[in-house]
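Q: Convert this sequence to structure tokens.
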Amino acid sequence: MSKKQTTISPRQRAAFWQAHHAACVNLGISTAIEREDYRKRVMREETGKEHLGDLDRTGDFDKVMKRFTADAGDYETACRFAIGDDARKAAIIRICAQQVLQLKGDEGGWEDSLNYLAGIIEQAKIPCGRNTVDSTFWMDVSPTSLLSLFQMLDTHRRRLLRSILGDNSTFLGFDPSVSYERRDGGVRLIYGRMFDSPSVEVNVRRGEK
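A:
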């Protein structure tokens, strides 16, 4: 198959620029230089590539579109690009919940962070608690509540990031490959591995709609 047949199609290219524009608006990225830097950074972090002509029309396109749509606050579309079934949605919720714990911080131990997370889950009227045997945090979520719970957790994750980095931060978008480490009043982004935090289990209640 020729490179022309594997690179993104004209229709995908148009969707790419539309999603990029929406993400820039939501993140407050206004100048042409900042928009270009953001585009290259997202492409580099998601695919290892910076040139649009190097993206393939399957995995690369989906990864970049997932990032753009999440950064734009379009969670439903982001979920379509990133997660296709309930098990994957549960995995994304688990990661987002752990990121909330990491951003809340462990200065006084993890108890305050876990209480904060429990408050979010309980506000959504979802059963949750601590497992006294292995100290994991668990939640039982119905399939129809998965997306709304992710949106709620991600709102708190963004709120915590803003409180640490300020309103002008351009690192607010959800990225499942990122862990956060609180350090010296700021936050360090760690890519590719999960920074230590209490383990979270997301149980999907089967048989419910």
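The mean pLDDT is 83.
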